[in-house]
Structure formats: C-alpha cells, structure tokens
Amino acid sequence: MTLLGVPSTDQARRLVPVATLGARDAAPAIVEPGRGFVSYADLDQLADDVARRWRALGLQPGSRIGLYLRRSTDAVAAMLGTLGCGAAYVPVDPRAPAERIAETHIDCDVSATLVEEGFEVPYRDALARLGATRIAVFPVGPVGLGRSIGQWALDDQPSAALPLESETLRPDLACILYTSGTTGRPKGWMMSRDAIDAHVGWCHDLLRPTRQDVFANHAQFSFGMSLFDIYSSLRCGAPLVLVPEEVRQHAPRIAELLSRERVTIWFSGPAILSMLATVEDLDASQLSALRVVAFAGEVFPSGRLNALRQRLSHPRYFNFYGSTETNVALYHELTPGDTLSEPPPIGRPCGHYEARAVSPAGRVTDVGETGELQLRGGDLATGYWDQPALTEEKRAAADDGGGPWYRTGDLVIQLAEGAYRYAGRIGRMLKIRGYRVEPGEIEARLYQHHSVKEAGVVGVDGRDGIELIAHLSLFSGSRLPAVELKEFCAVKLPAYMIPARFEFHSALPRTSSGKIDLRALSLSPQDSLL
User: Fold this and answer.
1) Does this chain's domain 196-425 share its CATH topology with 438-523?
2) Please, are residues 239 and 33 in contact by the beta-carbon 8 Å criterion?
3) 299-337 CB burial, b ≥16 within 10 A, e <16
4) Helix (H/G/I), strand (E/B), else coil: 153
5) Tens digits of per-residue pLDDT, 436-455?
6) Which of 275, 277, 254 has its CA nearest to residue 266?
7) pTM for the complete prediction?
8) Farthest CA pair distance, the chain
9) Exposed (0-12), middle (13-18) or buried (19+): which is 120, by Cβ within 10 Å?
10) CB neighbours of 518 closer than 8 A, spacing ≥ 6?
11) Looking at domain 438-523, which CATH architecture does it have?
C-alpha cells in the first residue's frame, strides 16, 4: 500500500517507508522492549487495515484525526493508516491534561479521535464541557504490538459515518503539532508531507542509515523530534526501538537498553544524555554499536557534554538546531577529541534551508555580530492552523525576490563560513526540558482562578535548569496554598508548564507604560511575600 493516498506520485515513495510499500518482510519494524516486535510485513498490514476502516467510515483526504494513544506500535500504525487515506494526524502527549488535549483537537477540527480506553472517559468529559459535539470518539484497547489498533481496524460492527467536513481540506498535510501559545491558546503547526520528506532525506544524506542500523525513539510522538525517529527508520527498513515510559528518565536503564537492543542511532534532548554521563558503571564496550548521538531542544552544558564524550568517545556527535516549525534546520558535528569550553555551535543550515541573522535595524549581520536567526526553505510553506495573523507575524519579507523568511525568535552570533552560535531568545519564550513554553499561556490559566488579580510568570536558573516562578497578587488574602494552585494549573497545563514556586505580592511592579515589569520580577529575591 501507499500511506499517502496518492500512490502514483514520486512524493509518496519518498515519504512512505520503502519497506512498507507492498513488501512482505519479516524483519523487525517496531520493537517494544519487554514485549517483542512487529515486522514490516505486519506493520504494513496494520496500516492497510486502519486505512481501509477510515475509508469505510467516510474519511476524506485532508481531514484531521486525533491520536490520544501512548507511544506504541498501535500509534505508529494509526499514523501510517491515516496518512494512507490522505488525511493528517494530530498526536498528543497522553500525560497532558485531558482538557488541554480536547482543546487542541477542537482547535483543528478533527473529524475523529482514536483514544486509548484508559483516557476515554476524561476525554469525553472534557469535550462535553467544551461544547464539542462533532468529534467522533473511537476507543481502542490497551496499546502494545498493534493488537488493539488491529482489532479496531477489523471491527465490522455498524458505526456511524464521520461528519462531513465544513472546513477547507488540506491533503498536503501529514500532521499538526501543537506547542504553547502566548494567549492561552495552544498553536498548531501544520507539518506538510513535503517538509517531512525533505527533513528525512537530509538526515539520510548526512547519516547514511541502512537496514543494519537500529534507531531509538525517546521523544513523545507529539514532539517534532519523533519525526526523525519514525520516518528515518522506516524509510531505510531499520528497526525502531520505543523506549518504555518507565525507562525514559532513568539513565542506568537507558544504558542497559542501548546495550541490549544494540542501538546505533540516538536522538534526544540533552537532559537524558547529561544523566547518562553520570552513570557509574557505564561501559563503553557494551555500547559499541552506538555510532550516532544527536541532541537538540536546548543548550547542552559543555561540562556534561565533555564528560559524556570522554566516556563514550566512539560515536559521532551532532548538535541539531530546530523547532516544531522547522524540524532540524541547522547542524554541527563535533570534532572528535576536542574539549569544549562552551556549548557547541548550532552550526550551518541543512541542505534544504537558507539561514541569515538580522539586526534589530533589519540589516543582515556580519561575522561576530548578534542578530535574530531567520530561515527559509520548503519546510516552512504552511503555517499555524487557523492563525493567519500569527503566521504572518512570524514571516519577514525577502528583498531578493525569494520566498519569505521565518523569524525564529532566537538570537545567534554569526561565525565564519556560514555557521552560527546560539545566544538566547527574543521575547519571553523559554525552554523547559526541551519543551518550548510561553509564560503568557501559564498566566492566562492563572487569571482564570477567581482569587488571582495579577499574574506574572518568569523563568529563573535552578539546580536542574530553568524553573518557572509565578508571581501573584490576589483580590483578597495574602496567599493561597501552592498545592491548590498547582492542582488548578494541572487541569489544563502539562506538568512541565506548572510553576515550581509561587510568590505573592500586594501588587506586582509596573513599567512606566503600565505593564507588569517582568524584568523586576525576574530579579526579585526568592520567597518574596507581602
């Protein structure tokens, strides 16, 4: 089968995993440690069955399908089967609050959601509270090795057809990935099929993976980094090992998994790699298969990176730079044997991108100067779902007759020969454990509490990275219990967006223009009260 719904085009055979195009291959495709594996032949059949069920239900090319499933073979098959109908999937982090997940699916008007049965009741309740009546909810049993999605796909019980679409259909889309938004409304980037194709094609040119490689997936499927894991492994017919949830944040068990599964290509945020560098009995010989270590999402402190490379000196190391909107856009390969005194550069643009740094005055910077990084390439041809103003805000007109530039909001220093070094953010966006966080979204949630009069959220350096501090003034009373505020936030915000600490003031400081003075709050002493 083709998984794009357009089997006659070359584009289909570029993006769709080569090994799933009708091949009957017994080699492992998805490995779930402790459970077993699913072959390419079986994954192909699962995806085919999912696509057939969607067509029977009336799914139209360009529709959106919500996926509320834990990382599993079932989730991968659901993605591929949805793509096979020409539709787009909208994955979520199942650890996030049900109401937030419902809001994202309502925002992009999904026709239906495949929801794992343990999440079904809170999800339906959230949809009801939000007044959503058009989304068809299909429960799926506990995920693992594709059994539950297979049962759903072959269910021959009568089922109502999906609602007819009223919005513009987008057959060019592969998925919509949501990130934090400044107004309290998450923003969904429309990831096109061509964008994933360009991203994976570049990765293959750089790393030259083969069927003898073994990829590992550490990122949630709602995170852009997972596109590399899934589509790079499937394209070359290599196995993809799904790191179990109970292992993901436990460095010694990560090391055991890398050794046992003979993983060759690893891509994650720096945090888990920093922890891996501290594992006491880390044996490089047991990880001899590991040939590529790539990291992205936040700055990797040079001390921890040096320690990791000293203990595991044989792999190639890459610093990848990108975002949900861009995938990997720049890259830097570390020189073997060198010792870093500062975090590595983010490097030069990938082959399918152009990059420039622009000063506040709009001038392209020279070597040694700091400016905003702007990118241009085919990956950026779409935009944010149903937010044209935000899409336009992120674009800068070109003066060379080419397409518009995407404004990343990141400050960089231009180095020699077209490379760049990261120098911070413009505005308020923060990176928390690799996730982009808009403090404005947290403030918008806090303002929904009946006692909160003023709210200002800032990030400060903590022992384990950036910590979120919420500064509040109240309509009455001097303070609220932190547990109450954390529980209030947890209804709509994922765990990484819940403030670590709450500080209370009689009134928040203001700038001369009357806005809350966030700079003053970021400099305020800890535990400041009335």
Assistant:
1) no
2) no
3) bbeeebbeebbeebeebebbbbbbbbbbbbbbbbebeee
4) helix
5) 888 888 987 898 898 998 89
6) 254
7) 0.84
8) 69
9) middle
10) 428, 456, 458
11) 2-Layer Sandwich (3.30)
